[in-house]
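Researcher: Here's the sequence for the chain we discussed earlier.
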Amino acid sequence: MLRRTFLVLLLAAAALGAADPGIVTAVDSIGLTVSDLERSVEFYTKTLSFEKVSEMELEGTAPEHLQGVFGLRTRTARMRLGDEFIELTEFLAPRGRPAPVDARSNDRWFQHVAIIVSDMDKAYQSLRAHKVRHASPSPQRLPDWNKNAGGIQAFYFYDPDGHPLEILWFPPDKGNPKWHRSDGRLFLGIDHTAIVISDTEASLRFYRDVLGMSVVGESENYGPEQERLNNVFGARLRITALRAAAGPGVEFLEYLAPANGRPYPADARPNDLLHWHTKFLGMSAEEAARNLRKHRSSFVSTGVVEMPDDKAGFRRSIMVRDPDGHAVQIAEP
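Model: Thanks. This is the structure I predict for it:
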C-alpha cells in the first residue's frame, strides 16, 4: 500500500513538473504615457513624494519594434516611492491621442496604481492643498462586514493627464507589514496596480497560469462606499489580488454590475495617453515569447526585441496585451 501511494505521488509530481513554468519573476514597474514629462515629474515629486532616479531618451529601430510605433522618440523618467517604481514616458514623436474625457472607472482600459499612505486624513488634505482633481467625492472607509476589505480607507483622484490614481490606508490587521512602518513618511510606496477586466477566469489563465503569478486575496465589494470610491452607481466588484515573487501586485476589478463598461480601444497604441503597461522581469524573453504565442496572446511588439545598449535597463523584451487589452512588458535583464 505504501509503495502504491508513493508511486501515485511520484506520478503527480512528474505531471506538475511537466506543466508550463511561470515566465515572470517580479513586477519591475508600472509605466504610463504622459503629455508633458516635466509637468508630470513635478506632480509626482511634489504632490506624492516620488523621487526621480533616472531619465533616458530613446529612438531607433529597437524601441520602434518594441512599442509598435514607427518613427518614435521618447523621454522616460523612472520614479521611485519607497521600494517601488513607475516610469513616465512622453512621446516627442509621434504624439498620440488624448485620454477620453468621459472615461469611467468601469471602462476596461482603466488602470491605476494604489499608493499607500500612513494617515488618510493628512494625505487627503495634502492632495486638496495641491488642488488635485477628485474622482471619489472624499475618502471612503470600506465596511466591516467585508471581511477581506473592512476598515481599509481609499480615495481616487487624477494626475495632470487624467490618469486615475488611488491612495490607500490599511488598518493594523491588513496589508503588508511594511505599510505599518511609516518612519514619519506620509506617502509610503505602491501596493499594486489595478486593472478592470471582463472575466476573472480568463485573466487568471493569463496572469496566473501563463505568467506565473499567485492569487493572494479575493473579495466581493459593493455598497454605497464602493460606489462613491469608484464613482460608479450600483458598483459591485469581484476583486482578485495576485503577486509575483517581488514587486507590486496586480489586482483584477471585474464589474459584476454595472456591466456597461466600454472595451479597450482596439486601435490603441503606446503613445496614446490612456496607455499604461506593467513591466515584468523574466528569465528569458525568447521563452516568454514562445509561451505567449502558444497561448495565442496578442503582441504589441514585432517579437523579441534586442536593445543596442543598456540604456533602457534591459537586454531583450517583448510587449503583449492581456485578454482585455492591457499592455504587459516582459524584460530580460
